[in-house]
Amino acid sequence: MDMNQYLEIFIDESKEHLQEMNQILLDLEKQPDNLELLDAIFRIAHTIKGMAGTMGYTKITNLTHKMENVMHEIRSGDVDVKEEIVDILFECFDALEEYVENLIMTGEEGSLDTDNLIKKLSMVLEGEPVEKIEEEVSQTGDVVSENIVKSNHEFTIKMDDMLKSVVNKAMMSDVNIFLIDVILDEKCMLKAARSFIVFNKLEDLGEIIASDPEAELIEDEKFDLNFQLLYLTKLDAKTLYNEIMNVSEINEVIIEAVEEKYDIASDDKVETLKDQSSTSQDTTTKTTKTNIRKNQASKTVRVDIGRLDNLMNLVSELIIIKTRLEDEGFQQQKNSNEMHETIEYLERITTSLHDAVMKVRMVPVERTFNRFPRMVRDLSKELGKGINLIMSGEDTEVDRTVIDEIGDPLIHLIRNSLDHGIESIEDRVAKGKPEEGTVNLRAYPDGNTVVIEVEDDGKGIDSEKIKDKAVSNGLLTREEADNLSKKEAINLLFRAGFSTVDVVTDLSGRGVGLDVVKSKIESLNGTVEVDSTVGQGSKFTIRLPLTLAIIQALMIELNKEKYAIPLNNIKEISTINSENISMIQDQEVVLYREKTLPLIRLGDVLDVEDYEKKTGEMLVVIIKKGDLEAGVIVDKLVGQQEIVIKSLGKFLKGINVIAGATILGNGGVALIIDSNQLF
Amino acid sequence: MAEVKEYVVFKIEKEFYGIDIKYVENIEKPQLITRVPYAENYIKGVINLRGNVIPVVDVRKRFLLEKKEITNDSRIIVISYEGDRIGLIVDSSSEVVQFESDVIEKAPKIGDSVKDDFVKEVGKEENRIIMLLDIKKILNINDQENA
Description:
The structure holds 2 protein chains of 2 kinds.
Chain A: H1 4-30, H2 35-55, H3 58-75, H4 83-106, H5 115-125, H6 130-146, H7 161-172, E1 176-184, H8 191-205, E2 206-212, H9 215-219, E3 226-233, H10 237-246, E4 250-257, H11 267-275, H12 278-299, H13 305-332, H14 337-361, E5 362-364, H15 366-369, H16 372-383, E6 387-392, E7 397-399, H17 400-421, H18 425-430, E8 437-446, E9 449-456, H19 463-472, H20 478-483, H21 486-490, H22 514-523, E10 527-533, E11 537-545, E12 550-558, E13 561-566, E14 570-577, E15 582-584, E16 587-592, E17 595-601, H23 602-605, E18 617-625, E19 628-634, E20 636-644, E21 658-663, E22 669-673
Parallel strand pairs in A: 6-8, 13-22, 17-19
Antiparallel strand pairs in A: 1-3, 1-4, 2-3, 5-7, 8-9, 9-11, 10-11, 12-13, 12-20, 14-18, 15-16, 16-17, 18-19, 21-22
Chain B: E1 4-12, E2 15-20, E3 24-28, E4 43-49, E5 52-58, H1 59-62, E6 75-81, E7 84-90, E8 92-100, E9 104-106, H2 113-118, E10 119-124, E11 129-133, H3 135-139, H4 141-146
Parallel strand pairs in B: 2-11, 5-7
Antiparallel strand pairs in B: 1-2, 1-8, 3-6, 4-5, 6-7, 9-10, 10-11
């Protein structure tokens, strides 16, 4: 039976179960007496065991089996739930997660060794005190080399009927059958060559029947540090061990004797197999195995992010040239319908191509999020605070580059919340808050952006204290500080000046490193804001663009200069008459849809040469930033266009109002307006 | 044998300047330059260099010389410095010279603050002197102004 069609289901389901187990373990820690939680873990371990058993993943099966036993003992009251036990269960969880991770990547369980864990679990069962367990387990490392012949090592060589029959046949003759696990030294440079030497040596002394990975893969160096062999020889285990260890750069060799006959599913099958010559047996095993691998490989392909970037760049170039074709097509002849249609078709294709490439690069934020529950657990233990992390929107997708970059800032923010936001248990009780603090981590898409929020119900940030601090730091004058709104004041935390150690103790380092967070987010073209109510908590809001490279923009003209305004910052386009403009505090405004709309003369802002103040009918692009709106007066609208964002480079970094540049169809460069900075 | 260094030579007004060839990526004919608001005044703007947007420095402006229209002789020398590319607009440029290290001398202080800043060494040929530019000084001006 071909198991591969089930692999995906297995992975999906185990991931779900593991997710659940993670959650329950976290809960269990808080309420060790809750039998329902124990039952739940038992159930999950049992389900995973069943699934893994069906799939033939022995390592997972063994580990979950042991976990099940422990849970059973705990349930029957023989063993108490102690912190250490939960810790061990967490370790088991990590191990299971790694197995599943390996399955996703390679279709194999991988070589993670859980002997120690299983040992720990067994000792828990025997009621040994935990300290002793740790001790014993740490000792086993030395014992291994003396116990050359081990019985509980995990071998991944798949024993199909053919192999079994070979083994059974060999049993009858005067040969020893060994399973050998050769673990190469981590520093081994030429793994393939090393393995070749081992293979050669063993071929001289006996017969290698099967290997995992297969010989071809080993030759191609497509394995981690170890490979396993099924081996027939007349030598005994000790000699064999020494022979292999004589090859340099071998870290460890584990040998297990195969002493029992294998059961073979059906007898007539054996008969047919026996008819085949032993060499052909060998090759058939190999081919079936290779097939399995091929199937797995076609489901997912791991691609270097660099190649995706390259692809993206090429798509960008294609879009530039497409735009150019459009321009030329319009200029040359409006009568040629065919040309027009062709260009439209090209446009559709490039747009789909772009979407497709973007999708390839999109990954759910879950990837970054799922390490946080554990982090929060460990940290709250460390800090001695009770903290509950609630996550939502883990399936929100963002660009791969964003995922990689967003982790650190989020860790920073969450740490900050735990460390400085959430009060100690005593303080919380004194304030009449629930003992346990809550940190909310949310992600959701919002138009062309993705929003990630970190909210805590801690002590909040006192804007007045920040103002005082800003004044004493010399960042602001008293007057400036007093004019700030509460929100503006709190956002001073992101200023570099606040990231020094001498932040007053009341703020207790709330600002530490926040400027780093901000600059990181801004380097991704995102924004970060903070809102807070003293005594009730703080909320950090990160807003990131979905795509980093290509956006829709409105092209406008000022005199002869062309600029691009990102479409997602534009609310609408309208005309106004200069007669309707009035002045409020030196600011031109106009009444628009019963609201006062401040006007920005972009030509003046950008200092366009020979720019004249226009009168009469004027074109206004209404831009938005959060709840704010403003009208930008422009000379001419060129039209909507897909543009490729290019950075201006280090030398022009941080220029006001300009977010980047884009290349026009005619080969010229147009600058992209950062409309958020116009407010 | 003394060490030989190569320099790309360009001309501004009547004077010759040299840039260490290791920084020079290529030399382009003048093309459409897009002005960048709020940039330093000696940044003429940005150009499209085969799909990349790179800033160009008006070297005349940098040397505090009067403005001169771009002509057919004008060139943009594209240099690469610490991974970033940047163009320098010069009046003309057409040759590469080799200097053995013993004909390179420390630039004499001539009291012209601009040249004292940018020219660290001079290379002597039979009938002309080539002022060898300190690229860092020309590009890193941002740091200085911020400091």
